[in-house]
Write a sequence for this structure.
């Protein structure tokens, strides 16, 4: 593709076979391209993964993505160059972005939650819980220092804080093809914890 | 200021303006028809916002794209990647 890249695989020690596959990939592509990291801790979380991953990243840009989705990384770089954005975020809600395999109920919850988020937080980005983002390395480092939430609320907080710090955010439509290899849950618990997170951000940022 | 702070501030500002005009002190100087409208204004605005919310979410729900081709393309990519990796020696 013409880009210099490295992939950092962070394994939380769960027995899902990630480690074996990653080790084989290292043999195939070389250890400069695939960097393996293992974190075994009881409090493993998204944030921990970011922190450790970042310490070992050597590039100028960091792309963070869920491993079970499909996106075209190239598009993100094109967008970034367009406006020299500090962050490029994937959005399901604009342009030809969208989802696959979602029933009406799930779409309604998603749109409703997003509407609430927009009204309360006015974040300047259309999709806050997105799972595919490109950051400039320094920007990600700065944001990591400032963000305190856990889980996906942390993703939302990153964008809100980025806006506060004056960083520019570009958006790219993404197609969210849900969990090719597993089921994604959106039950009452998730909704409650989302609302709690949203209200926390509302009150603290 | 936090978002909550902004909201509270805004509400306090608008609230006191409304209270001053609709409820009391400036009473005699506000013509009756205006007062009739002012008094229920907060409720009107709330209802209007409620309708706007429903309409917006409804519209967005209806225009939420379904990406059939992206899903198909993803399956293709996965297949191609598997084949390629298998060729290079990866055992699943």
């Amino acid at each position: 593709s013409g880009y210099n890249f490295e992939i950092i695989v962070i394994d939380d020690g769960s027995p899902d076979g990630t480690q074996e596959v990653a080790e084989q990939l290292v043999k195939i592509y070389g250890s400069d391209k695939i960097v393996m990291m293992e974190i075994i801790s009881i409090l493993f979380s998204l944030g921990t993964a970011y922190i450790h991953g970042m310490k070992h990243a050597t590039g100028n840009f960091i792309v963070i993505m869920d491993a079970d989705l499909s996106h075209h990384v190239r598009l993100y770089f094109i967008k970034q160059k367009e406006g020299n954005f500090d962050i490029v975020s994937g959005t399901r809600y604009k342009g030809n972005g969208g989802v696959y395999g979602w029933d009406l109920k799930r779409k309604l919850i998603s749109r409703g939650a997003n509407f609430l988020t927009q009204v309360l937080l006015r974040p300047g980005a259309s999709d806050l819980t997105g799972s595919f983002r490109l950051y400039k390395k320094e920007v990600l480092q700065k944001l990591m220092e400032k963000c305190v939430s856990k889980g996906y609320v942390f993703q939302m907080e990153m964008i809100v804080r980025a806006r506060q710090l004056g960083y520019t955010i570009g958006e790219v439509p993404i197609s969210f093809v849900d969990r090719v290899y597993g089921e994604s849950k959106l039950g009452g618990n998730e909704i409650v914890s989302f609302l709690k997170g949203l209200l926390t951000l509302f009150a603290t940022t | 200021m936090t978002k909550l702070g902004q909201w509270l501030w805004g509400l306090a500002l608008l609230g006191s303006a409304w209270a001053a005009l609709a409820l009391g002190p400036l009473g005699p100087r506000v013509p009756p028809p205006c007062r009739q409208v002012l008094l229920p204004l907060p409720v009107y605005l709330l209802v209007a916002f409620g309708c706007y919310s429903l309409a917006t979410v409804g519209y967005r729900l209806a225009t939420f794209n379904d990406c059939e081709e992206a899903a198909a393309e993803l399956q293709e990519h996965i297949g191609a990647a598997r084949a390629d990796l298998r060729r290079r020696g990866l055992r699943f």
Summary: Helices of chain A lie at 18-29, 46-56, 73-83, 104-121, 137-146, 151-164, 188-204. Strands of chain A lie at 7-11, 34-38, 61-65, 87-91, 98-100, 132-136, 169-173, 175-177. Residues 104-121 of chain A form the longest helix (18 residues). Residues 95 and 173 of chain A are 6 Å apart (CA to CA).
